Amino acid sequence: SKFWRYDPTAKPPVKNAYPKQISNWEGVPNDLDAALHYTNGYTYFFKKGSYYRFNDRTFSVDIADPPFPRPAGYWWFGCRSETKGGITGEQHNNKHDDDVNGGGRRLWPQGRRRSDDLSDDDVTDLIMDGGESTEDLRV
């Protein structure tokens, strides 16, 4: 699989060096559904209901418990009826998790909740899956 990095502030918004191989991202699978770079220093990759948190400083998928990939329903979208993943597949028990606060509400940057007014400024780049196409990107 291939991807393009789209930066709406750049002219042109996609550099000529793209597309590039997804395999450049260690620990991230091919055939992704979506990806985004967030202002917290992580890039999030989504595939088939799960997500990978990629640490941009170490250039690797984060090591965590439960490990990545994690179910996006529970960890990303805050659906408490979904399992947390991991070996036991346990459901939410209102303990502090690294991606949600103790009250079971998803925390967003700077302590905001998703229901707060969030601007698109929190997402710095979008990474789009280019599939298996061998065509050149024309900008």
TrEMBL record:
Listed Gene3D superfamilies: Hemopexin-like domain (2.110.10.10)
Highest taxon in the source lineage: Eukaryota
Region (Disordered): 85-139
Name listed for the protein in its UniProt record: Uncharacterized protein
Annotated source species: Rhodnius prolixus (Triatomid bug)
